[in-house]
Design brief:
Strand order of the largest sheet: 4-3-2-5-6-7
Strand content: 25-35%
Structural class: alpha/beta
CATH topology: Rossmann fold
Order of helices and strands: EHEHEEEHEEEEHH
Radius of gyration: 17 Å
CATH architecture: 3-Layer(aba) Sandwich
Number of helices: 5
Helix content: 25-40%
Bound molecules: inosinic acid, magnesium ion
Largest sheet: 6 strands, mixed
Number of domains: 1
């Protein structure tokens, strides 16, 4: 994969570890829902690969739907303002819903989306996130299913992006930015959230 000068990637979580953990989460979900059908709601775009793999480790009838959320203004990390860019196509009322996200960071996005779905009266609402950066939390939030707790590093791959790149890497990697890029990193962060 082509990388701009100064941008370096190192593997944080290998594809093998991801596959094993996703299998465990799928089995746990299968046990806990005991034959009941599920609606998996993916948060675009970052969660699409996690959702695709997780769903195939779940031994229950599952349907998919997708949401997209973005942040207001420039200070995406701190504004605390989320807006819905794409709503669901289906109703969640009376259904077992699992909201599937790539990464839980400040908690702003998942707080907003979980509240939105809860107001629509699902039978149950659980949240699954591949990654959790607990040190970054601004609004308290606990996910029900967490793949990996990771330190406060900017990561890409397995669906996660830096300025829309690297989503198709098989491993979760840390991006090391060159000196000239570091200044513009806030911008990259913001782009990555879309
Ligand atoms: P939160 O509202 O801060 O929890 O935002 C979570 C969103 O920020 C995720 O859905 C990602 O799109 C983005 N994000 C946070 N940390 C990273 C990262 O390390 N790499 C890529 N995207 C990230
Ligand atoms: Mg995301």
């Amino acid at each position: 994969m082509r990388r701009p000068k100064g941008e370096r990637l190192t593997v944080l979580i290998s594809r093998g570890r991801i596959a094993r953990r996703v299998r465990e989460l799928g089995r746990q979900i299968t046990r806990e829902f005991r034959g009941e059908p599920l609606l998996l709601v993916g948060v675009l775009k970052g969660a699409c690969i996690f959702l695709a793999d997780l769903s195939r480790e779940i031994g229950l009838d599952a349907t998919f739907d997708f949401l997209a959320a973005g942040s207001y203004g420039n200070s995406a990390d701190t504004s605390g303002q989320v807006r819905l860019l794409k709503d669901l196509d289906t109703s969640v009322e009376g259904r077992n819903v699992i909201l599937v996200e790539d990464i839980l960071d400040t908690g702003v996005t998942l707080n907003y989306l979980a509240r939105l779905l809860r107001e629509r009266n699902p039978k149950t609402l659980r949240v699954a996130t591949l990654l959790d950066k607990a040190d970054r939390r601004v609004q308290p939030f606990e996910a029900d299913y967490v793949g990996f707790r990771i330190p406060n590093r900017f990561v890409v791959g397995y669906g996660l992006d830096y300025a829309e790149k690297y989503r198709n890497l098989r491993d979760v990697c840390v991006v090391h930015l060159g000196r000239e890029k570091r200044k513009g990193r806030k911008q990259g962060n913001k782009e990555a959230r879309k």
